[in-house]
Amino acid sequence: GAVVSQHPSWVICKSGTSVKIECRSLDFQATTMFWYRQFPKQSLMLMATSNEGSKATYEQGVEKDKFLINHASLTLSTLTVTSAHPEDSSFYICSARGVGGPRFSVNTIYFGEGSWLTVV
Amino acid sequence: AQSVTQLDSHVSVSEGTPVLLRCNYSSSYSPSLFWYVQHPNKGLQLLLKYTSAATLVKGINGFEAEFKKSETSFHLTKPSAHMSDAAEYFCVVSEGQAGTALIFGKGTTLSVSS
C-alpha cells in the first residue's frame, strides 16, 4: 500500500538550534500534507496544512515563524523547527492525502511513522 | 466545526471478551470517519473508515464500527480481545472535502489482561 516516510525518526538538538523533519510520499503524489504534534499520552493536534507550491495554512496558536513548512514538490514536505526550545520536544507526525499513484486510495490519508524531537 | 468525542479515556477488558470503544462526532456536513490505532512509540495505523457507503464498516484485525447518523456515533467493536490489541485508539473525523484535515479525538487507551 501507499507509504509515507518521515526522517529522521529520532533527533536530539541543542536549545536555540533549528531542526528539519522531512515527510515523503514514496509511491504516490500528495498535493496536500498535514503536520501534527503529539505530546506524551495525548492526542494529535493539527499544526498546519501544507499544499504543494503554496504557503501552508497554520492552525490557531501555531507560530508560523517558528514552525516553517515547505511543500516544494508533490512528494516532499518539510517542517523546520527554528530556534528550538525544550518545550518544543514532542512527537511530530505528518500525513499525506494521495491524488495519484499506483497503490493509493482516494479519500484515505496516509501517516508517516513520526519523528521524536528532543531539545536539550 | 467538526469534532469528535471519545467517551472513555481508558477501557480495560479481559482477553477473549468483547471490546467497545465509544465515539460521538459533530460535523456540519456528511463526515468521513476513521479509527486509528497507535502502539507505544509508534506511528498510526488505519483500522477502518466510513465514507458514506455501508454504515457497518469492517476493518483489520477483526474490528468493526457502525455509523449511526441519528445518534451521531461511530463506536468501535471487536468480538474477542487479544493481548496485542492493547494500544491507544483514536476516533477521527474529516468532512471529506479535498484537502480537509483529519481531526482527532483525545484517544482511548485499551488495556487487555490475561
Taken as a percent bin, the fraction of beta residues of chain A is over 45%
Q: Spans of chain B of 5+ residues with little confidence (pLDDT < 50)? A: none
Terminal-residue CA separation of chain A: 37 Å
SS strand fraction of chain B: over 45%
| Portion of residues within helices of chain B | under 10%
Helix and strand content put the structural class of chain A at: mainly beta
- Please provide the count of β strands of chain B: 12
Number of strands of chain A: 11
State Rg of chain B: 13 Å
What is the overall number of helices of chain A? Answer: 0
Number of helices of chain B: 0
What is the string of helix and strand elements of chain B? EEEEEEEEEEEE
Largest beta sheet of chain B, briefly? 6 strands, mixed
> What structural category characterises the helix and strand content of chain B?
mainly beta
Overall body shape of chain B:
globular
**Averaging pLDDT over every residue of chain A, what do you get?**
88
Largest sheet of chain A: 7 strands, mixed
String of helices and strands of chain A: EEEEEEEEEEE
How far do the termini of chain B sit from each other?
41 Å
How is this structure best described in words?
The complex is a heterodimer of chains A (120) and B (114). Chain A starts with a strand and ends with a strand. Chain A has strands at 4-7, 10-13, 19-25, 32-38, 44-51, 57-58, 67-73, 76-81, 90-97, 109-111, 115-119. By secondary structure, chain A is mostly beta strands. Chain A is globular. By secondary structure, chain B is an all-beta fold. In chain B, 0% of the residues lie in helices and 53% in strands. In chain B, strands 2, 5, 6, 10, 11 and 12 form a 6-stranded mixed β-sheet that branches. In chain B, a hairpin with a 5-residue loop joins β5 (32-38) and β6 (44-50). At the A-B interface, β4, β5 and β9 of A face β6 and β11 of B.
Describe the secondary structure blueprint for this structure:
The complex is a heterodimer of chains A (120) and B (114).
Chain A: E1 4-7, E2 10-13, E3 19-25, E4 32-38, E5 44-51, E6 57-58, E7 67-73, E8 76-81, E9 90-97, E10 109-111, E11 115-119
Parallel strand pairs in A: 2-11
Antiparallel strand pairs in A: 1-3, 3-8, 4-5, 4-9, 5-6, 7-8, 9-10, 9-11
Chain B: E1 3-6, E2 10-14, E3 19-21, E4 23-26, E5 32-38, E6 44-50, E7 56-58, E8 64-68, E9 73-78, E10 87-94, E11 103-104, E12 108-113
Parallel strand pairs in B: 2-12
Antiparallel strand pairs in B: 1-4, 3-9, 5-6, 5-10, 7-8, 8-9, 10-11, 10-12
